[in-house]
Amino acid sequence: MKVDTLILGAGAAGMMAATQTGGATLIVDHAARPGEKIRISGGGRCNFTNYGVEAGCFLSENPHFAKSALSRYTQWDFIDLIDRHGIAWHEKTLGQLFCDGKATQIVDMLRTEMTQAGAEFWLSTEIGEVHHDGTHFVTTLTRDGRPRQVAAHNLILATGGLSIPKMGATGLAYRIARQFDHEIVPTRPALVPFTFTGAALEPLAALAGVAAPARVTTGGTSFDEALLFTHRGLSGPAVLQTSSYWAEGQPIRIDLDPEDRIRSALRHTRQTEGRKSLSAALAPHLPQRLIAARLPQASTTRIGDQSDQALSEILAQFRDWHLTPAGTEGYRTAEVTAGGIATDGLSSKSMESRTVPGLYAIGEAVDVTGWLGGYNFQWAWSSGWAAGRAI
Ligand code: FDA
């Protein structure tokens, strides 16, 4: 069987590419259903993009690489698309856009668009070795136990990263890219909770379930969002964001009062209600369990007895908390994979290989990793669109 374009991976990026390619297109996936990560994303409502998408919200060895695709297929273009399909949506927080209903509406929309574009779609399909015979990329695709050789002028690698192997993530795109002499930026789990061990874990695990707004910093990069204590360590949006910038052995700093509001509130309480306990004075600002854990004497100490110096030391317990994670929860729970197919080898305009004409790489498989908040889907839409349009 001969096609113009073979797309490996029917996730967000592959499906978007298939809506744009001209000519005969075949899109294949080993999963029984397409876009499984879209389906489970955003708690089932898919955080499909963000009002604030810009290149600065992405990590890559080349921070400029994502600019072209992101500016040619923007968040507004995707919003237009879902509006045309009558999918209702809303902004949740920080520019994050979610479906009002189920995330599967987005999968259905992409399927409809692919069908209209004439793309053929094979699920539950195993992909064999790939080689180039001088004119075509050739591989064997096995569906229902029946192997078929397929030859394609163009091959789009869209099998994503290594995150959540249980959902069918494999390193296939990296393997094929390597085979065609493309470099792979070392991969690591990103947007992932931190784990702690031994004595460092005990105080955190004791607070499991407690959440609070915080600024979490590592290596000069900070995020102000919610922090969550877990039985294994730390999670929550601020932590997930920080994890993408974290290197093993590096400390993180937690500031539970980044706007510096508590100090003046405590001073005011000291003046007006000096008999109050420290824990009562702190209670409007911080979770009670956290106060008790960080300042065991707080319930028996009067706010009126604290000097300015003492207040500073008390606040430091919450504002200058240094911890060194033992590691992360790994690909098992990581929302994305950082690193991947090196951008040096790809055209930022078309996602085509600079050295192997007809070979393209898109989506999470490429060394472009977005922040939490809809940025990774926007990269999948933009890079998929750019490759599809170029063909
Ligand atoms: P994606 O992983 O979507 O698709 C790859 C496809 O290739 C899959 O269908 C897979 O089955 C297939 N495949 C892999 N190996 C194969 C092989 N060997 N043979 C055949 N097929 C193969 N992002 C965001 O912006 N907003 C959000 O709300 C969320 N939420 C979220 C929640 C959870 C739990 C996760 C794990 C991730 C998110 N993300 C997210 C990230 C987002 O899902 C991710 O960045 C995109 O799905 C990447 O799109 P791709 O198409 O590149 O890969």
TrEMBL record:
Pfam families cross-referenced by the UniProt entry: HI0933_like, HI0933_like_1st
Keywords assigned: FAD, Flavoprotein
RsdA/BaiN/AoA(So)-like insert domain: residues covered: 188-336
InterPro entries assigned: BaiN-like, BaiN-like_dom_sf, FAD/NAD-bd_sf, RsdA/BaiN/AoA(So)-like_dom, RsdA/BaiN/AoA(So)_Rossmann
RsdA/BaiN/AoA(So)-like Rossmann fold-like domain location: 4-389
Cofactors (names): FAD
Transmembrane segments: none
Lineage top rank: taxon: Bacteria
NCBIfam families from the UniProt entry: aminoacetone oxidase family FAD-binding enzyme
Record protein name field: Aminoacetone oxidase family FAD-binding enzyme
Biological classification of the source: Bacteria, Pseudomonadati, Pseudomonadota, Alphaproteobacteria, Rhodobacterales
